[in-house]
Amino acid sequence: MGEIASPSQLRMSYIRWALVTVPLVLLLGIGSGRLSESGYGNPWFDALVKPAILPDGWVFGLVWTILYILLGLSLAHMFQARGARGRGLAIGMFVVQFILNLAWSPLFFGAHMVREALILLGAIFVTATITTMLFYRIRPVAGYLMLPYLAWLIFAGLLNYEVMRLNPDAGTVAPMGTGTQISL
Questions:
Q1: Percentage of the chain lying above the pLDDT 70 cut
Q2: Are 173 and 166 contacting, i.e. CB atoms less than 8 angstroms apart?
Q3: What are the Cα distances from residue 175, in Å, to 32, 57, 171?
Q4: pTM of the predicted model, to two decimals?
Q5: Phi, psi (5° rounding) for residue 120?
């Protein structure tokens, strides 16, 4: 009788939060990639030398969709944990790391700043690791949901580094067919 909320009420609260956070994270994440023309099909990216470990384009779409869903679910756990000590800091760190995440595609694919994008990935990894630890302290499942994201960030950092290594002049690479040709 002394319970504040029943298990089914708590579950419904989580589901309501997830119905907001998952689509929001997906929309912002996918939107960032689309606005910066990330991935294959970007003329600048297509002109670069690619590392052998670079997956096919469809892999990125699938992986990022799954990761954004997991991030949204993890965030829903934090919103549901009302009154938990450190909740505000945890959500704040999530927002910081997510803003950094959203900035990566425009920096790499839009501005062609490969080195700076690698530095940004380092900052994303550090803030995402702190976020994961804060989430875990409040709701362990929320921390576990962040682990695939951390693993992918490590792989993304390796890919970013390899692109930088293979294309030291990446910022000045002009896609084929963008210059003017004069025929006589």
A1: 89
A2: no
A3: 22, 18, 11
A4: 0.88
A5: -60, -40
